[in-house]
Description:
This protein has 5 helices and 6 strands; from the N terminus they run H-H-H-E-E-H-E-E-E-E-H. The chain is of the alpha+beta class. The termini are far apart.
Amino acid sequence: MKPRPAHTLTAFACAVAATVALGTASYASPPGDRHLPKVVAAWQTAWNGTEPGALGALFTSSGSYTDQAIGVSFTGRQEISGWKARTDALIDNVRVTVRAAHRDGDHITIEAVYSGHLKGAPKPFAVPLATLLDLDGPRIAHDQDFYSLNAVLAQSGLPADWTPPAP
């Protein structure tokens, strides 16, 4: 499945609008998993779990994951699993709490809260997250996550130029 430029631009605009609409102060109650597409419920469970391979297993063999806030991309199940392992090593109690998911064919837009406690930071964080998923059958072909790195650092009590330690 190839991304369509017009669709990608529209989806990006929707993701940005969802992130802005979510704000940073309060959040509605999350829907029960029965209201989420199966792949979204599995994606949330994988992010909230402790087995990095569970996240990678949701992707096609050539699937890609992009963290837009940090500007990194990973391709393939092994690299995506490695990113989850690195995230778990840097953030205690990392969680993704889905608030809503909207499906249009093979495209899903997720509104969520990304939270945790950066190791060594004085305080935990909880920021709005917008995710765009493109599916290939039951698996994720492309995942793009959008959140404010500045908000993560500010809520954590870290300076804006903070960078994580090398692995």
